[in-house]
Amino acid sequence: MTNDKLTDKQRDVLKFIYEQIRFKQLAPTIREIGDKFKFSSTGTVRDYLDALTKKGYIRIQEGKSRAIELVKEALFQVPVLGRVQAGMPVYAAEDLLGYLNLDQFVFPGPDVFALRVRGLSMKDDGIMDGDFVLIRKQDHAQVNDIVVALIGDEATVKRLAKRGRDFFLDPANPDFHPIPMTSEAIIIGKVLQVVREY
Amino acid sequence: MTNDKLTDKQRDVLKFIYEQIRFKQLAPTIREIGDKFKFSSTGTVRDYLDALTKKGYIRIQEGKSRAIELVKEALFQVPVLGRVQAGMPVYAAEDLLGYLNLDQFVFPGPDVFALRVRGLSMKDDGIMDGDFVLIRKQDHAQVNDIVVALIGDEATVKRLAKRGRDFFLDPANPDFHPIPMTSEAIIIGKVLQVVREY
DNA sequence: CTTTATACCACACATTGCTGTGGTGTCAAT
DNA sequence: ATTGACACCACAGCAATGTGTGGTATAAAG
Q1: Model confidence, pTM
Q2: Does nucleic acid strand D have an atom less than 7 angstroms from the CB of B164?
């Protein structure tokens, strides 16, 4: 019965609402939405809000300003990125592996993303295969931080260590060995949290 | 210079704003705050908002409705509870060990709380001493779920298992042994996520 | 051919909501 | 004695905002 597929424009409007809530922590007013899409009538915006409501993506508290709630869980997520290039996570659609559902924990900032850990090289630190690491993009890190580094083409999670004058990326698993930091290794972010979903 | 200590009333107002944002996902208007505290004047509310702004707890975007932002990180957190009694987490102040900073991940729901894991009984599942487990309150669980159970006085994280007719709470560490589910063991919630902070 | 959904417009209206400009009184610090 | 922070009040102005009631046009579905 309920066809919850969105048209392109409806998706655009929903995305705008989502971004406002996510980054400005404040749902837009009808007129703010209208301005964004150059609608000269508030009625047009209502048509969209009605459509989104009917399709179950938002909920609106009548009479209140800015009272748009996001309903579909699909929105309460951080992007899980596949490729990481030249120190910059690639947000392009083809690299978006999906979304990490953070349950009711929403509103991640724009410089936070997630990567899915592959392998058990950090097993003894409790980072298991399949875990998500939440990363804040940054090009620096301190010794003993757990970082995501790019070695050539591959993103890897390791602990930054210093022995003598040299820096290493240490695994937490005796089956793996430390990787010396060379000019090819770039730190792209610091692991803020490990999240495992059950 | 800046004394950021709040008076009791100011804290009450801040708490109300926080709760509205957290649970209703919508900051209150000046009049909504006034209604709550039976202020007959909007000016009174402004005095409070000014005080909270000056002390650095909130930020207000002028001219916009409901444009109250929470500033202090202290607010973007889930409660970490100490005691868990009779299947109900105790939210009383004396049991509030502190708050788990979820970084920019905010707006946990009202039935979600966190416990800090003690010991290494779930080590092989990657749940380490000191990790936080995010729990949704619920009195049921499925076999193989990782649950928080109350055995007598103590809350423990284990995996729910069934062997034959009997249910057990299995550890994930050969140094510990399974605990049979008896009438004294109550499931108080399901582990949704493991969060480890660095 | 009619209905339904989409995608817009115009404009009026009432209320909501922020702001501005006053005021009173208490209490602690200077 | 005065200043400043606190804790309130009254009320008016006006812009922001949601709502109501219309309208047009297109396209797909029945």
Answers
A1: 0.54
A2: no
